[in-house]
C-alpha cells in the first residue's frame, strides 16, 4: 500500500524548494556568489584557482576597508623561495602612517600552513617599515596578510604571489 503525503506537507516542501532555488548562495564572508568571478574558477582537477598578484617593485594596494594604502617592495625582487625582506610604505589620506603596529603573516592556502618564522617589523621613517625575514620556505602560492593597527583601528591587505622554486624549501642553502 502506497503512502500519501498530506496536502499541508506537500505544500511546505514545495515552498521550501522554491525559496531555496531562488536564493543566491553565500560564501563564508556573507557575500553572494550568484555571479562568477575569478575566485569561482577552478583548475583542470576541479580545485579552486587562487588569484595571484603580478609582482612589480612598488606594488600598491588599498587595505580591505580603505583605511590605508600599502606599497610593497621586496629584496630580492621578485620575492623568492626562502628569506626575503619586504619594505612597506604605509599611508593614509594624511600621508605616511607613523607608529603603526604591523604584522606580516604568510599563508599557503593550498597546503593549509603558514611560515616557519615570524617577520620582525621595524619602522625606518614616517610610514616606511621593514619586515624581515619574510620566510616563504616553499615554492607555490603564498597569501600574505599585512595587518596595520593605528589609534585603535585595524585594517589589512593581502599580497598573493606564486613563488618559483624546487623542493620543499626546508633545506635552506648554507655556505660551508
Describe the structure.
The chain has a domain at 59-163: Sandwich (Immunoglobulin-like), CATH 2.60.40. The protein has 176 residues and is mainly beta. The chain contains 1 helix and 10 strands, in the order αββββββββββ. The strands form 2 sheets. Strands 1, 2, 3, 4, 7 and 8 form a 6-stranded antiparallel beta sheet that branches. It has a 4-stranded antiparallel beta sheet with strand order 6-5-9-10, with no helix packed on it. It has one helix at 7-22, and strands spanning 59-62, 69-75, 82-92, 95-96, 101-108, 113-114, 120-125, 128-136, 140-150, 153-163.
List the helices and strands and how they pair.
Layout (H helix, E strand, L loop, with lengths): L6 H16 L36 E4 L6 E7 L6 E11 L2 E2 L4 E8 L4 E2 L5 E6 L2 E9 L3 E11 L2 E11 L13
Antiparallel strand pairs: 1-2, 2-3, 3-4, 3-8, 5-6, 5-9, 7-8, 9-10
Distance between the termini: 84 Å
The residue fraction in helices comes out at under 10%
CATH class of the domain at 59-163: Mainly Beta
CATH superfamily of the domain at 59-163: Immunoglobulins
CATH topology of the domain at 59-163: Immunoglobulin-like
Q: Which class do the helix and strand fractions yield?
A: mainly beta
* Strand segment tally: 10
Amino acid at each position: 500500500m502506497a503512502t500519501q503525503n498530506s496536502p499541508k506537507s506537500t505544500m511546505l516542501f514545495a515552498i521550501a524548494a522554491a525559496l531555496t532555488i531562488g536564493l543566491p548562495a553565500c560564501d563564508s564572508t556573507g557575500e553572494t556568489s550568484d555571479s562568477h568571478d575569478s575566485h569561482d574558477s577552478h583548475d583542470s582537477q576541479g580545485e579552486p584557482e587562487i588569484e595571484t598578484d603580478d609582482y612589480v617593485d612598488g606594488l600598491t594596494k588599498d587595505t580591505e576597508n580603505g583605511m590605508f594604502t600599502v606599497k610593497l617592495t621586496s629584496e630580492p625582487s621578485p620575492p623568492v623561495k626562502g628569506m626575503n625582506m619586504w619594505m612597506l610604505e604605509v599611508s593614509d589620506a594624511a600621508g605616511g602612517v607613523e607608529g603603526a603596529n604591523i604584522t606580516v603573516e604568510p599563508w599557503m592556502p593550498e597546503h593549509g600552513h603558514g611560515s616557519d618564522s615570524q617577520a620582525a617589523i621595524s619602522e625606518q621613517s614616517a610610514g616606511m617599515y621593514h619586515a624581515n625575514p619574510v620566510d616563504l620556505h616553499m615554492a607555490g602560492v603564498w597569501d600574505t596578510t599585512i595587518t596595520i593597527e593605528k589609534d585603535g583601528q585595524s585594517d589589512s591587505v593581502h599580497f598573493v604571489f606564486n613563488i618559483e622554486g624546487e623542493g620543499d624549501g626546508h633545506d635552506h642553502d648554507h655556505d660551508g
